[in-house]
Every structure is written in C-alpha cells, then in structure tokens.
Design goal:
- About 45% of the residues lie in helices and about 20% in strands.
- The chain is of the alpha/beta class.
- The chain folds into 2 domains: about 120 residues, Quinolinate phosphoribosyl transferase, N-terminal domain (Aldehyde Oxidoreductase, domain 3, Alpha-Beta Complex); about 140 residues, Aldolase class I (TIM Barrel, Alpha-Beta Barrel), CATH 3.20.20.70.
- Helix 1 packs across helix 3, helix 1 crosses helix 4 and helix 7 packs parallel to helix 8.
- The two termini are about 25 Å apart.
C-alpha cells in the first residue's frame, strides 16, 4: 500500500480539490496555519479496517510533516469505541483533509467489513469470495484493495486481465461454441477462458467447447448442484448473480470453487468513523 502508485495519488489529489475548491474559508478564518494540534481517529462501530495508509496520504498531501501513531492495522477487526490512530501536525491541514480522508476510509472499511461477513459464512467449505468490476467509477483500486483486506480475492481488475465470455459476447458470436472457438484461435496460450452460462444446456456446451472455467450466473440452488455434478474436477466453477449473506452458504455447500459478489463494491454501507480533535495530553 505504501508503494509508489500514481493512480491512487492522482485520485487523492482530485478528491481534495473537489472538497477544498478555492480553500476552506471556515478553517482559514479561525485557525492560524502555524498552529499545531492532535486528532484521534475513532471507530464508532465494530468494523474491519481497510484504507489506513490512504487515510494518511490524504493528510500528508496537505501537510507532509503530519505524524501518526497507529493502534490498529488494515485487516484488523476493530471493536466499537476503539482508537485507531493518533494524528499530530498542522491543525488547519488536519481539518481541511478530514472529510476526504474519512470518506475514503469509511467506504473502504465498509467494503472490508461486508467482505469478511461473506468470507466467514463460507469458511468451512474452502470457497473463495471474489469481487467484480461493479466498483465506484474511479475508485476500483481502492475498492479491490478493501476486498482483500476483508479476506476476499480479486476477480479481473479490468477487461485486459482475463478472458470472460459473457452473454452479450455469446449473442454476438451466435453460440458458446463459436465464441470459444474464436477466442482459442487468437488468444495467447497463457490466458484461461471462462464462460458465463445461465442454464444447464449452456453449462454442457461450455464444457464441450473446452472452457477452462465456467461461471454459473443467476442459477437456482438446484441448477447449481446439477452443474457442479457435470463440471467438478474438469473445470474451475464460479457462481455469481444475486448471492446474498443469507444464500451464500447454500451456494458454497453445492461445491463451487469461487463465489463472486457484486454487492461487495457496488452497494457497501459506509462504516461509522470519526476524527476528534484532542485537547491537552492524550493516552490511547
């Protein structure tokens, strides 16, 4: 997370620019730029922490000398009312960066917290929970990092990462078999071919066509069980489409290898975090 990452740093700069505009008039009228202060980041509810290094980079974009003392790390389960870190530096910069930093951290920790819930549901079945490309525009790097901190795994980051033949590709090609054949003719041998199917007929066709992985999309539990019987030990099996915390265990029991969940990143609930200015001495 602390490595050089131009995409991350450019996004942080854009988000600060969005919030600051021509300046924070309230802070600039009240606080002298030379005034130093302390702030504490506090969890208001139980959560899985994700994005603390991003949180810090937001503040350091305005005040490179901002210092931090950490009491938790990304991936940790943090209880309610737990102090996560202490900040010390220019008070005006702290207040100017506060909202942007919290926006990143609350979303990322929300994704990690939700991901952990899915991961715990399927832990007995040794099934991987995956994300999808259904991320907030521009925030994919942050969203997918948060999934990993929650114990999940990343599917494709972008369209160039792998071959996934979906329904519209199949419609354009005319059939699953034709789509796979066209890919086989042109794709490098290092790329596996995954095919999305919606029924058992499509499952059988994908297997005959030589797919390396099959994605069972929006199938009923009974269909998934039958598809697993056809595919187990022959290809990698992924299930996706409308899978919730209430249904993910049943899907895992059917014997799939992977379960992808768009909800992890397309509709996470931001967790409750706050930054409080500290007066006087502070002890965690």
């Amino acid at each position: 997370m602390d490595e050089i990452n131009p995409i991350r740093d450019r996004l942080i700069g854009l988000c600060l620019e969005e919030d600051l505009g021509f300046g924070d008039v309230t802070t600039e009228l009240i606080i002298d730029p030379s005034t130093l202060g302390k702030g504490v980041l506090l969890a208001r509810e139980p959560l899985v922490l994700a994005g603390l290094p991003v949180f810090k980079r937001v503040f350091r974009a305005l005040c490179p000398e901002m210092a931090f003392e950490d009491y938790a790390a990304d991936g940790d389960l943090v209880p309610a009312e737990k102090n996560i870190c202490l900040l010390e530096g220019a008070l005006s910069s702290m207040l100017k960066a506060e909202r942007t930093a919290l926006n990143f951290l609350q979303r990322m920790s929300g994704i990690a917290t939700l991901t952990r819930q899915y991961v715990e549901k399927v832990r007995p079945y040794h099934v991987r929970i995956l994300d999808t490309r259904k991320t907030a525009p521009g925030l994919r790097w942050f969203d997918k990092y948060a999934v990993r901190m929650g114990g999940g795994f990343n599917h494709r980051f972008g369209l160039s990462d792998g071959i996934l033949i979906k329904d519209n590709h199949i419609a354009a090609a005319g059939s699953i078999g034709r789509a796979v054949e066209r890919v086989r003719m042109k794709a490098p041998h290092t790329l596996k071919i995954e095919v999305e199917v919606e029924d058992l007929a499509g499952t059988e066709e994908a297997l005959r066509a030589g797919a390396d992985a099959v994605l069972l999309d929006n199938m009923s539990p009974a269909q998934i069980e039958e598809a697993v019987r056809l595919l187990k030990g022959k290809v990698l099996i992924e299930a996706s489409g409308g899978i919730t915390l209430e249904t993910v265990e049943e899907t895992a029991k059917a014997g799939v290898d992977l379960i992808s969940v768009g909800a992890l990143t397309h509709s996470p609930r931001a967790v409750d975090l706050s930054l409080e200015i500290v007066q006087g001495n502070f002890s965690p």
